[in-house]
TrEMBL record, chain B:
Listed transmembrane segments: 21-45, 91-115, 127-149, 161-181, 202-224, 259-279
Superkingdom of origin organism: Bacteria
All copies of domain ABC transmembrane type-1, residue ranges: 87-278
Main location: membrane
Membrane topology: Multi-pass membrane protein
InterPro entries per UniProt: MetI-like, MetI-like_sf
Originating species: Rugosimonospora acidiphila
Family classification: Belongs to the binding-protein-dependent transport system permease family.
SUPFAM superfamilies membership: MetI-like
The keyword Lipoprotein belongs to this UniProt entry's keyword annotation: no
Keywords: Cell membrane, Membrane, Transmembrane, Transmembrane helix, Transport
Subcellular location: Cell membrane
Annotated Pfam families: BPD_transp_1 (PF00528)
Name this polypeptide is given: Carbohydrate ABC transporter permease
TrEMBL record, chain C:
Region described as Disordered: 1-38
Stated name of the protein: Sugar ABC transporter permease
Keyword annotations from UniProtKB, A to Z: Cell membrane, Membrane, Transmembrane, Transmembrane helix, Transport
ABC transmembrane type-1 domain ranges (all copies): 109-321
Organism the protein comes from: Rugosimonospora acidiphila
Lineage of origin: Bacteria, Bacillati, Actinomycetota, Actinomycetes, Micromonosporales
PANTHER family: ABC TRANSPORTER PERMEASE PROTEIN (PTHR30193), DIACETYLCHITOBIOSE UPTAKE SYSTEM PERMEASE PROTEIN NGCF (PTHR30193:SF41)
Subcellular location: Cell membrane
Membrane topology label: Multi-pass membrane protein
Main location: membrane
Protein family membership: Belongs to the binding-protein-dependent transport system permease family.
Amino acid sequence: MRLRSRPMLAVSASALALAVLATGCSSNGDSGNASGGKTVITVEGLPATTKPGPRQAFLDDVKRFEAANPTITIKPTDASWDAQSFAAKLAGGSAETVIQVPLTEPQGIIQRGQALDITKQVKQLPEYGKLDQHVLAEEKDTGGKLYGLPVNEYALGLVYSRAVFTKAGLDPDQPPVTWDDVRADAKKIAATGAVGFSIPTTDNFGGWMLTTMAYTRGGRMEAQQGGKWVSSVTNDATTQTLQWLSALRWDDKTTGTTSVITSTDPVQALATGKLGMSIGAPNTYTQFVTTYHGNKDDFGVSAMPQGGGNATLSGGTVAMVTAKATQQQAEAAVKWIDFEYLQPQLDPTVAVAQAKAQSAQEGAVVGLPAVPLFDQASTDQIAAAVKPYATVPVDNFTKYLTDTRKLTYVSEPPVGAQDLYHALDPVVQALLSQKNADLNAKLASAQKTINGTLQRLQP
Amino acid sequence: MTENLGRGLISSRDRRRPAVRVVWTAIRVALGAALVVGGAGPLYWTLKGSLSDTNQLLRHPLALWPWPMRAGNLPDAWQALRIGHFLLNTVVLVAGSWFVQLFVAITAGYALSILRPRFSRVVHAGIMVTLFVPGSVSLVALYLTVLHLPLFGVSIANSPLAVWLPAGAHAFNILIVKQFFDGLPRELIEAARVDGAGPLAIAWRIVLPMSRPILAVVSLFAVMNEWKNFLWPMVAISDSDKQPLAVALPKIAGASDQALLIAGLLIASLPPVLLFLAFQRQITRGVRFTGLKG
Amino acid sequence: MSSVNQTVPLDRPSRPVGEAPAPRQPGRQPGGQRGRWRAAWGSQRRTGDWIGWLFLVPVLLVFAYFAWWPILRGLVLAVQQTNLVQPARYVGLENFQRLFADPLLPTAVRNTAWFALLSLVLGFPVPLVLSVLMNEIRRAAAVFRVLVYLPAVVPPVVSVLLWKWFYQPDTGLFNQVLGLVGLGPVRWLDSPSTAMVSIVLEAIWAGAGATVLIYLAALSSVPEELYEAAELDGASIPRRAWHVTLPQLRGVILIILLLQMLGAFQLFAEPFVFTGGGPDNSTTTVLLLVFQYAFVDGDYGGAAALSVLLAAALAILSAVYLRVTRGWTSS
């Protein structure tokens, strides 16, 4: 009968448990080096499904690249860098072969051994000599080895709604150039019922904005002391910035009433005509138009307003190859970075071909101004060549370009920039949420937190 | 569970008194209204919101009826926000966790309650100890463990296994299954054993068929709790493409149209709500039985 | 209440559900019988043991890997520093020193305690009153039960995103309703003084249903005679509630309070999704700090050290609570 002991089944049950564990191993081993003689690499940078046009344009680029390099297969993902999950993703080995990170990250990644040395592969690129050495310095370790390539650079400016400006009786072609101007214009905008000026305050954006505004008044957030970097966030420029913002929030009441503001809130408000001014890079345009359906002629951007520092924060995106990649993968990765990001900024023919292909897609964004990765002459040449295919109102960006050139580009804080920003978020939130917040005490407390982190990061 | 039809705080004599009747009716109506507004209201609002236009939502948040109606939100959310994709991720995680939890609880409960090999009390004690260590406390160490499984030396992070397998280490399930097995009539088992049935046959033919109620309770709570899980899946599965809906939603929230987002919220809550409505008797009974909190 | 479920059996003597045979309480099961069972298996004792351990393999594997090892690993990690790439190195008490120097720690502890206090003071009476009233409902009781438990079924992240929308300062539902009766606007999540209260309100809404069901179960076992005796003594309904119902619920109430407290100290999803800990760190909880240390700053050692402190605090809290209340439960 069936009433017989069948321990074998129990054995197979436990074996199943083990097998499940074992499959876990194999399924997560670094996948796809060579399938059928092809080198497979995964790359970040694919625009999200919510932006179908730019997404298709990117996929077309991938096809053209694969056609030109038949031994390479590209698997694009629409994952994007995010402070919360990045470290875990990289440590867990699930990061793509080619990752794109903000300029704040390369030094930490290099120090932790999470990226591959690509000096050899990059030196094989014909245009290696033309790359801006100042830009490359941020992706080198102390021994001069190169771990990444810049894919774009930006300089922050004032982003504003031209429609709101017009409605408030302001000239959209004469945006404010000093913080006093911003304050005065914010008042006029607030009189129409819109919010005058607003900046994001969460996910490190608050600290980032504060840092940028401090730069324009001559402040710096970190200083070297005995060979190590320490926090200098309690400088006068930061304090002045906080006082200025506090005056807008509590005296003028031109910043709205919210204090927990995500990075997308101001863009959405600009696009829907509820906000006059914020801070951002020219590529804020993409979100403004594609995600929030703002009218593209309403988007305005100008050089960063100044308070005596004559500077703006410049950041950028760096492509790096993760440490687990093979040499073949690294070579393929560098080729891809060169194809997708570097060539279009150097070679007018390539740039025009890319611009042509991209502008055919609905909702494509072509013609945004860029900070030169090579030299100003090449950048100007490219801009002129691409202009016929531009989908953006290029003339609205001219003032940003000419005025920003006159400013000093200041990089982000050299060590633990994201941690520094993170510690400053609450200061900005306190300012916006409590009328008589003791901002000096908040800054001092942030300084203490930052110095603790900086100490840990520079053993 | 049978309805408690006996008397409670208020006796039938009380209920006949006019003053009590008036006050009690008022309380009952107020209670009913409060529960409808508080319990069903937000869900109804989500339903309404997912059928409305964003501008309409912003302008008239209090409107009771979606007008003008916009039925396109649900398919749009499904497509543009890839709700369907993330929903499938959730289903995969929930199904696997359910299976692992049930499998571990049954085998462990059977061994600890019926077979009782020597020294199994040590195992029992070891399992019970973990009841007193809140899961969130070993979050970081658990993460390092799935990144690098001791002895195997591999990473299961970022694969469903990282959610499935730790779900099995659920002391409470094992405890209640074991307690249930403890209460089964030994005579039956004894008789089968005399008939020559081995441990596995006894488990399969006697213990499991009699345990359907407890397995149903464990299953329902396994499914509902996994559906709600947030922190661990977010940590264990860093690839945003493989994350479940609960983890994906807050990220989506920042960068999407509000009406679409609310449609997404509706889709995320429908399965557990429908499951609950279908099995509400078993679930409310299960809560009473186990004192489980969700 | 929190994303982490702490579960403890309430119906201590296991009472099987449905048509299952009458239970035999483990406590009352005579030791002799247990012995007899073992003896009956005895002729094949060795095989019995072998098979028994075979059945224990799955549980041993998952507990070894995902419960016991992480607990030990956590203790060791607290005195280590690792960046997950290079091997971990011992740093002694450095992690704890850095922890105590961080001005955020006292803030997080204060916030967590504040949340626990608020959720007990505001959140404790709600399910109790609801369940006492619902226990008197005779018609459509099932509908009431469904309604009260419905919020507990909605995934927490969904509830939080929904409430975030309700809390919007201008267009949110709550300020609109308050506006109708000439109140507000309240700043809800946007002000450090109200952000935590707002989170507590949502947490109560989401958590009350499950507690109500537990209370209802306890209420159904209150002996009718007690009420009858009280009524004969001429006690009014509120007096009966105070002198009969509450004392009868004492045991359940004490356990629920402990569970709520443990849950409150592990608050994560709500502040994480609502405010990210802001504004001005007013909703940064201890667990949020653990998360930030580990997964934002990459300071796994510091995160483990903080976890160890949290575990110790919870253990001490539970022990003190159980000791203090031990005398009260015997009834």
